[in-house]
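Schema walk-through. Below, the input block comes first and the output block second. Nothing else is stored per chain. Lengths vary across the set, and this one has 154 residues.
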Amino acid sequence: MIAVVRILILDPLGYVVSVIATGIAIFVALYGTAINPDLMPLFITATVGIVSAVGAFSFVPALIAIVLSEAFRLRSVFYWLAVGGAIGIGADLLAGPEAYRPSLGDGRLVIFLGAGFVGGLVYWAIAGRLAGGQRHQNSSTGTGLDPAEPPSSA
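--- output ---
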């Protein structure tokens, strides 16, 4: 029951927060942290646009990574950094020709890769470190099976 609640609440929450963190990381990499208070509506609009693009692009690859991590109990922060980095590289490759991104310049791969690392790290901190649930050690049989599960006949 706890695993179902974790998957239904923590995994989507972790994805949403990681997408927001990734969008903010991209915005900060492009425009810096010194924001004129008069330009706050522009900051909010640009961040919402970037977050929407990040969420749309990363949904399917992130879903595949989440399913794999839950199925195989992949909890390592390095797994999520690799997933975030791979999604960042994919975003860089699919972002279009350089002429359409003059503000990104030569450092666009670093921006996408760093933003992917930020997203992967944030997801791991919220949900990835708990992937696959806990495996209980059954003291009577010495197996890693949950006591509620019947032992396999094989």
